Amino acid sequence: MVAVARFARHFGPVVDVLYPPRCPSCGVTIASQAGLCTDCWSSLEVPTPTENEVGAVPIYAATYYNETSRKLVLAYKHGGRIALARLLAQLVAARLPESQEGRAPPVLVPVPLHRWRLWQRGFNQAALLTHELARLGKGEPAVEALARHKRTPNLGGLGREARERVLTGTIRLNPARSARLAGRDVVLVDDVLTSGATSRACIAAMSEAGAASISVACFARVDQDHRLIHP
To answer: CA 86, CA 117: separation in Å to the nearest integer?
Structure first.
């Protein structure tokens, strides 16, 4: 890590000259390679704590899914801009509560991808966020705790009930990793929370391991007043 920091300090200015920093959302020139322009920062809509509760499961969302966050998600998830994982994770980390004194840090579990989807995309966007959150001191990663055993079609555009039907029986607990969740606080990590169907399927699977508590952390959350459809 020290070597990386030294490299960034010495060669960062050279990189900035060769590749001028641009806002990953709108493309305008910015001061550094990490971050957003002022306009895009100000356009992110952060949910209030009371808006972050869905049923009995706390939802920690960095922002609502609006035009700005949509562009970031598309660039990250479908545009191959995996370096954005650090920025998105920093925004999520700012919403997560601090670990209680005397309690073990939470276990961070990403929403799984089916192996064919992982092969097509080349990475699991939720797993990358999980690793970045771990680097930020927000918990211990358990990237193989869940597995998606059935390939499902793209859920974009489907309603809640349709998503529930498609996801039935597709996500299961990995028996070899279940002991890591027993008695621990668990945070399910995803990039976008849409209807909550995927999260509920993951929570149902993790509940079998005897987790002490389960919450959800995501970068963007689709809300009824923010009607963009997650692709």
So the answer is: 22
